[in-house]
Write a structure and sequence with these properties.
By secondary structure, the protein is mainly α. The protein contains 18 helices and 8 strands.
Length: 399
Amino acid sequence: MVSFTITEKGYALRNADGEYFPFVKNDIENGPEKGTCAMAIVTAMLLERFRAGAFPISLVSMDNCSQNGARLRASVVEMAEAWKEKGFVEDDFIAYVSDESKVAFPWTMIDKITPRPSTEIADSLEASGVEDMQPVITSKRTYIAPFINAEGPQYLVIEDSFPNGRPPLEKSNAGVYMTDRDTVNKSERMKVTVCLNPVHSALGPYGCVLGYTLFSDQMKDPASLKFAEAVGAEGMEVVPDPKILSPKEFLDECLYERFPNPYLGDTVQRLVTDISQGVGVRFGETVKAYVERDGDAKKLKAIPLAIAGWLRYLLAVDDEGNTFELSPDPMNDELQEQLAGVVIGDPSSLGDRARKILSNVNIFGVDLYEAGIGEQIEDILREELKGPGAVRKVLESYL
């Protein structure tokens, strides 16, 4: 088996316009002998294995993205087919990498927060007599140290698809679960649609507007904790249940152990980075599940509060009236343009400026007005626009 931790971007061959990245295009033109990107290199290695006897193998993505095995497989097969068009490989190699009884791409769900090394922990270790513990910034602007400050909870759910055998990973006592693809998918959806990511995306915007930096500090705020609990509770009514993990226990561990952990150093600004790319899964899936079950999503209160908070955050003005810088997001400019003219202190200035966002199926996966909560979100946002302190007042009184 070969495992991958190369981040979601490592599997990408094309840009947002559907064109090959220049380095990928070069790897296609130059062939298997001169690959430079990860997907070209692994496909070239598979070609060597094929030529040596077409032996079976499993390529295991352990990156934190949905259906990671499918992403890896798609990129490898596409690279192989591109080389075939250039005459570098034959049809039988395409058949080899496309046959999961020969080359398997197990899906996985991985969950463990491991932030950059903490200088506070380095100082503590050095005070105890352990030398040279301070983090070092590499040439790639990453942080390394002789220690790792990671949380205790850890999960790795792996599709048991290993045509050439595997070690007994489930006996590692490290939170590894071997199962089928459907269970892996349900475990991942449990995490990203209910138990972990929705709470991040709900609280992050409010944390920024209320002036927090550390997420663990925000979780000490009773109103924020109550909000987090409400977001989780709404999702629990429609949670995908993988059976091998308890959604309730997973959620409780997040709320009361993982998120309040002061040693992780997680920031609310990180939680809202690229948030527009995640709200469709993190909120939209629950909205759709309520619509499917009840005919509409009018029963929801915490998720509309979360979405209103995101729009309020996009105004880049905190609850005291001070401006702040938005975290990076590819839709910031477009969304801020649609909200242009909305003024803190004048709720009527909202008008119908939020409608284009809240009805955007490409953002939420559903038209929130058709789901029955668009007007509710607008009403909450108007309350939050009343002036300094309005966001805090809404957060403390709404639920």
